[in-house]
Specification:
This protein is of the alpha/beta class and 852 residues long. The protein contains 36 helices and 23 strands. It has six domains: 178 residues, P-loop containing nucleotide triphosphate hydrolases (Rossmann fold), CATH 3.40.50.300; 73 residues, Arc Repressor Mutant, subunit A, CATH 1.10.10; 225 residues, P-loop containing nucleotide triphosphate hydrolases (Rossmann fold, 3-Layer(aba) Sandwich); 53 residues, no CATH class; 149 residues, PCRA, domain 4 (Orthogonal Bundle), CATH 1.10.486.10; 45 residues, SH3 type barrels (Roll). The strands form five sheets. Strands 9, 10, 11, 12, 13, 14, 15 and 16 form an eight-stranded mixed beta sheet that branches. It has a six-stranded parallel beta sheet with strand order 3-2-6-7-1-8, sandwiched between helices. Strands 22-21-20-19-23 form a five-stranded antiparallel beta sheet, with no helix packed on it. Strand 20 and strand 21 form a beta hairpin. The structure holds adenosine-5'-triphosphate and magnesium ion. It catalyses: Couples ATP hydrolysis with the unwinding of duplex DNA by translocating in the 3'-5' direction; ATP + H2O = ADP + phosphate + H(+). This is DNA 3'-5' helicase.
């Protein structure tokens, strides 16, 4: 290739350089987050090529995600003047193994065009295998068997390698079912994900000649995120590296977060034993984050017993402390994050105003750097480069270049001189990282309604998800019976025996009579055009739709007949069958919820969770119609595809990435750490959650904000939440506790005092936030109302549900009914006279004190 640019070496520190330049023999880079492992790995690839050690197709480079592979390829291309494009063997374990297996499929009884089963297909096939073996699928669910088999495959175990005792589950027939499943796969010319590696390991173990060939072809092996490899991946790597031993692995034991998927952090710790004489390089300088952020991450991860322990340092300027804030509930949290981001991107936030990025350069320096990297595209000045990029609508994705473009536009438009520091943040520089994907909905909703562009990584956006579209289609038909598209979507979901033919019949009737599909379906059922199951199914659906529609219209009820515990409605007001209850009824009676409850695929629980989120979203609206209108408007607004966007993703998906601004919401017991990890015996699960916290904090470059809410709806029920134990583990000196805005009153006290250990609280109470006038005001208020009660020793209930927390005559606020005044208190029930909807009796925990 062309003379490569050796600049990639001068940008490295001594330890990195050593790792890059030690081309032969095994090398292990074991180092903390942001120390430049990935950067060094990329430089190593460039170095292999530019020294002529290896051609692009002789290098095997494994990344953890396809996205990471694309990024690495782009970077290598940048360094090697395009030569990296020839890298055929750069990708994830799966991607690389598929490529290999297609060539040698016949060795495991497959044809080269084998299909790869997704999880749904896998479960369906297992169901067949289970029922063919006369096993009751209800007692021994296919999903469970899938988990067991995946576990075996992750450990590279074939049925033949397993003993009888290994099949303890499934009436001791696990291994036998596994063997039958593998036979079925072969007959179908198919492989599941686990097979890709398992087959390749088997092939290499049984065909030494072939393995030899690959060892000659793939002379250099590089692996990123090595701490998350499972046994099968490990064996595959060890087989391939066995001859030449030119293998370079990089990783961080503190970032091992896929144990639940069979990853074994032991692989990285065993490297020196597997490859005696390996050069071990340790990197300790972090180039990503400010000292405060780094200190926070180090303090949290120090809570883990099972770790090697590494020191990280940085010479970056102090920057901002990690920010910690508690909110009333998840919606408030999303609202606050939305406002913060708006302030950051518009430049009104103090963080934007104070922004001094220690790594930012002047435009001239940046231009210089791009010139060295050969990326000027013929431009002679920054202005020209900008013009070219703009004209080409360049997908030139490199971060610094986007900054450059931004700076140039900004400066040009405001006629300002070029300045060395960037001030405002761009949406592109901001990410929200959640523990569980159902947390995304409240952020998406908020961002949609304030018009903040965002993207969701690792899944479709909330309102584009299948189950959400289905549910909304039901609502649409209930509100507008003529909505044919919506009707078509739901008429056979869940299955009602309405196949293509039946649907065609209904469409013909609709056209002939000029009526909606719903009316046509009614006619088809009444007049016997539909037969059998389809007929009863459709008739029942139409009757139910009619019933729901009338409920949506009337919703009138009269007082005096109510049970005392129910909300008392004033005369002429709408009935207590709120639109929320109606929505729940529709999802229930239509069989839609049941359909997902009976579904045993791994996605089903998530879908149910999303449906609950949908119902929750309704709370902010008066009725179903208003909600549907809102969604259609915001979805329409969001057509613009290009441009800077805020990223919403899970913590698991964030590995290896970095953003100047990171929000980490939902740090609450049961959510993060997850309930499952808390229920587990032993510390394994909790330690993995803590590593996830470490991964989250270390993604942030400049501003890191952690938040938690006092109340959250979990499985449709409001719950008082305790702040996460990880909040306790933050180092006080590096944390700024923010006073939440607005409405909260006494609960604020509970949030800060309640969520944290006594010592933390004591330390925090010296923090500035506690001396602010707003804070003192709230403390006074909480003093009047009495403290929250301790629960489970260390923690204190955040939400004061105690009877004493409200007084008669107090002004209060309820999410649905708005403002009102407490008339009467009985135990935890309040009778409230609402300003707009009259008197109601409610459970106290659903009401917050109003502040006027
Ligand atoms: P993680 O463990 O999170 O994957 P990592 O160790 O792979 O982190 P990188 O992503 O390679 O770290 O680097 C982190 C940041 O530091 C990047 O922005 C990178 O460009 C920068 N960086 C790495 N090494 C250096 C260096 N020697 N000089 C300046 N910046 C560096
Ligand atoms: Mg990395």
């Amino acid at each position: 290739g062309a003379q490569a640019n050796a600049d990639y070496l001068s940008g490295l520190n001594a330890a990195q350089r050593e790792a890059v330049e030690t081309l032969d023999g095994p090398v292990l880079m074991l180092a903390g987050a942001g120390t430049g492992k990935t950067k060094a790995l990329t430089a190593r690839i460039a170095h292999l090529m530019s020294t002529g050690r290896a051609r692009p197709n002789e290098i095997l480079a494994v990344t953890f995600t396809n996205k990471a592979a694309r990024e690495m390829k782009t970077r290598v291309e940048g360094i090697t003047a395009g030569e990296g494009a020839g890298m055929q063997w750069l990708g994830t374990f799966h991607a690389i193994c598929v490529k290999m297996l297609r060539r040698h499929a016949e060795l495991v009884g497959l044809k080269s065009n084998f299909t790869i089963l997704d999880t749904d297909d896998q479960i369906r096939l297992l169901k067949q295998v289970i029922s063919a073996a006369n096993i009751d699928e209800k007692r021994w669910p296919a999903r469970q068997l899938a988990g067991i088999i995946d576990g075996w495959k992750n450990r590279a175990l074939t049925p033949a390698q397993l003993g009888k005792s290994d099949g303890a589950a499934f009436n001791d027939r696990g291994v036998q079912l596994y063997a039958q499943y593998q036979e079925r796969l072969k007959a179908l010319n198919a492989a599941d994900f686990g097979d890709l590696l398992l087959h390749m390991v088997t092939i290499f173990q049984t065909h030494p000649d072939l393995l030899e060939q690959y060892r000659r072809w793939l002379r250099y092996i590089l692996v990123d995120e090595y701490q998350d490899t499972n046994v099968a991946q490990y064996l595959w790597l060890r087989l391939l590296a066995g001859g030449h031993r030119n293998i370079c692995c990089v990783g961080d034991d503190d970032q091992s977060i896929y144990g639940w998927r069979g990853a074994e952090v032991g692989n990285i710790l065993r490297f020196e034993k597997d490859f005696p004489g390996a050069k071990v390089v340790r990197l300790e300088q972090n180039y990503r984050s400010t000292p405060h952020i780094l200190a926070a991450a180090s303090s949290v991860i120090a809570g883990n017993k099972d770790r090697l322990g590494k020191e990280l340092w940085t010479d970056a300027e102090d920057g901002e402390k990690v920010r910690l804030i508690g909110h009333w509930d998840g919606e408030e949290e999303a609202r606050w994050v939305g406002e913060e981001i708006e302030a950051m991107v518009s430049g009104t936030s103090k963080y934007a105003k104070n922004r001094r990025n220690p790594r930012s350069k002047s435009i001239e320096q940046e231009f210089e750097r791009l010139a060295k990297a050969g990326k000027l595209r013929g431009a002679a000045t920054p202005e020209q480069l900008f013009g070219i990029l703009k004209a080409q609508n360049s997908p030139f994705a490199e971060f610094k270049t986007r900054k450059l473009m931004w700076e140039l536009t900004e400066r040009r438009e405001n006629d300002l001189p070029l300045a060395p520091a960037f001030q405002k943040f761009s949406e592109e520089e901001i990410a929200i990282m959640v523990r569980a994907s159902h947390q995304m909905r409240s952020f998406e909703d908020r961002f949609l309604s304030i018009g903040l562009p965002y993207r969701v990584i690792g899944g479709p956006r909330f309102y584009e998800r299948m189950e959400i579209r289905d549910a909304m289609a039901y609502f649409r038909v209930v509100i507008s019976p003529d909505d044919d598209l919506a009707f078509e979507r739901i008429v056979n979901v869940p299955k009602r025996g309405v196949g293509d033919k039946a649907m065609q019949g209904i469409q013909v009737i609709a056209r002939q009579n000029g009526v909606s599909l719903k009316e046509a379906a009614r006619i088809a059922a009444d007049e016997g055009v539909l037969k059998g199951k389809a007929r009863t199914g459709v008739a029942e659906l139409i009757a139910a739709l009619d019933r729901w529609s009338s409920m949506a219209v009337q919703q009138i009820r009269f007082p005096g007949v109510d049970d005392e515990d129910e909300v008392i409605e004033a005369e002429g007001q709408r009935s207590e069958l709120s639109h929320i209850e109606l929505a729940e009824k529709i999802l229930d009676e239509s069989g839609y919820t049941t359909m997902w409850q009976n579904d045993k695929t791994p996605e089903a629980p998530g879908r149910l969770e999303n449906l609950k989120e949908l119902v929750k979203a309704l709370e902010q609206f008066e009725n179903l119609g208003g909600f549907l209108e809102h969604v259609s408007l915001i979805m329409d607004n969001e057509s613009e595809e290009h441009g800077a966007k805020v990223t919403i993703m899970t913590l698991h998906g964030a590995k290896g990435l970095e953003f100047p601004v990171v929000f980490l919401p939902g740090w609450e017991e049961g959510l993060f750490p997850s309930q499952r990890s808390m229920d587990e015996s032993g510390l394994k699960g909790l330690e993995e959650e803590r590593r996830l916290a470490y991964v989250g904090i270390t993604r942030a470059e400049e501003v890191c904000t952690i938040s938690f809410a006092a109340n959250r709806r979990v499985y449709g029920q409001w719950q008082s939440q305790l702040a996460s134990r990880f909040v306790d583990e933050l180092p006080v000196d590096h944390v700024e506790v923010l006073t939440p805005p607005g409405l909260y009153g006494s609960q604020t006290r509970g949030m800060f005092g309640g969520g944290m250990s006594a010592s933390f609280e004591e330390k925090v109470s010296r923090a500035d936030a506690y001396n602010s006038p707003g804070w003192r005001r709230m403390q006074e208020r909480s003093g009047q109302r009495g403290m929250a009660q301790p629960k489970e020793g260390r923690h204190v209930v955040i939400d004061a549900t105690a009877t004493s927390s409200f007084t008669e005559g107090e002004r209060v606020f309820h999410v649905k009914f708005g403002y009102g005044e407490v008339m009467e208190i009985e135990g935890d029930k309040l009778t409230i006279e609402f300003d707009h909807s009259g008197p109601k009796k409610l459970v106290a925990s659903f009401v917050k004190p109003a502040n006027k």
